[in-house]
Amino acid sequence: MSSEGIKIVCQNRKARHLYHIESTVEAGIVLLGPEVKSLREARANITDGYVGFRYGEAWLHNVHISPYPYAANIGKLDPTRTRKLLLNRREIRKLMGKIQERGYSLIPLRIYFRDGKAKVELALAKGKKLYDKRETMRRRTLEREFQKDYKIR
To answer: What DSSP string describes 83-141?
Structure first.
């Protein structure tokens, strides 16, 4: 747990490799009790997740939260069910406008607990082309070599 009271549950590490990230937004997630307990045990996967809009609301799709094994009182929950996101109406309208532009998507970067509440960090992102990915990898290796040379001297 860091100094701000944030406990990171899971991260989408491939997102920065696959997308150009324009901006980020924090949103709350509507969860059921066993899902919160599973998140506290860091039993989630957001690599294939994305955000869709329906009826003027934001919904999180394809995020896998494993079922909590000790939850007997609630029936079997679908681990990849769609979950409602808690955003301001103004934020939703702004994000919907951006999503309708060509090539933009809204993806989850990480799920974390802040002050005991589950939050998701969403990124407004544009997909990278293959040559962009290669350029990023090339830049990263050059930077790594520079750091290694700098340490030696």
So the answer is: EEEE--HHHHHHHHHHHHSTTEEEEEEEEEEETTEEEEEEEEEEEPPHHHHHHHHHHHH
Sheet holding 50-54, edge to edge: 6-11, 104-114, 117-127, 19-29, 83-86, 57-61, 50-54
Ordered by where they begin, the domains of the chain are 6-128 (2.40.280.10)
Mean pLDDT value across the chain = 87
Q: Based on the number of CB atoms within 10 Å of its own CB, is 11 exposed (0-12), middle (13-18) or buried (19 or more)?
A: middle
Residue 74's pLDDT band (cuts 50, 70, 90) = low
Cα-trace Rg, the chain: 18
CA dist., res. 49 & res. 85, Å (int) = 13
First to last CA, the chain: 36
Of 39-43, 73-77, 92-96, the range with the lowest mean pLDDT is 73-77
Using CA atoms, how far apart are residues 107 and 18, in angstroms rounded to an integer? 11
